[in-house]
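FAQ

Q: What does a record look like?
A: Structure on top, sequence underneath. For example:
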């Protein structure tokens, strides 16, 4: 009788553990390449939400004729309206935050910071196979925005000297 009770207890533990691990392994997690193919974005869990950061940047240095930074140095968040953040590196920057998982591969109520214009937008995402649609929009209307389609990373050689990646 005790053996059966221990067996049931052990099986229950395994089911609970497997269920919680399956919930942690959200299918959206991973690395993606945006349409410009100039960076690699990592989607990760931040608490109970989904966030994203710049994991790699291709040719991560201001060009010789740059008006925004010292030529040859890594890109900084020079368009940020907060003077204290203008010197933070773009590499490793968390620019997606607060996304909540919904059903059917959809994620809502997020924010996306665009370092190209220094503005933060409301956002939603949808995962469809190996493609991730990110829609950033004005918070007053989801009609006023832009959708980018990112592809899950595959076959990209990040050891190439052109890529600067998080260590």
């Amino acid at each position: 009788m005790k053996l059966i009770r221990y067996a049931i207890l052990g099986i229950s533990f395994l089911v609970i553990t497997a269920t919680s691990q399956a919930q942690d392994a959200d299918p959206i997690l991973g690395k993606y390449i945006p349409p410009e193919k100039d960076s690699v974005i990592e989607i990760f869990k931040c608490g109970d939400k989904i966030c994203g950061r710049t994991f790699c940047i291709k040719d991560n240095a201001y060009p010789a004729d740059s008006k925004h930074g010292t030529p040859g140095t890594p890109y900084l968040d020079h368009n940020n309206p907060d003077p204290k953040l203008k010197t933070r590196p773009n590499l490793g920057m968390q620019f997606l935050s607060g996304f909540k998982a919904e059903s059917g591969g959809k994620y809502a109520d997020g924010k996306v910071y665009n370092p190209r214009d220094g503005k933060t937008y409301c956002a939603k995402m949808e995962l469809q196979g190996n493609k991730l649609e990110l829609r950033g929009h004005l918070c007053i209307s989801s009609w006023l925005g832009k959708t980018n389609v990112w592809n899950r990373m595959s076959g990209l050689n990040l050891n190439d000297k052109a890529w600067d990646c998080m260590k």
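Q: Is there anything notable about this one?
A: The two ends are 54 Å apart (CA to CA).
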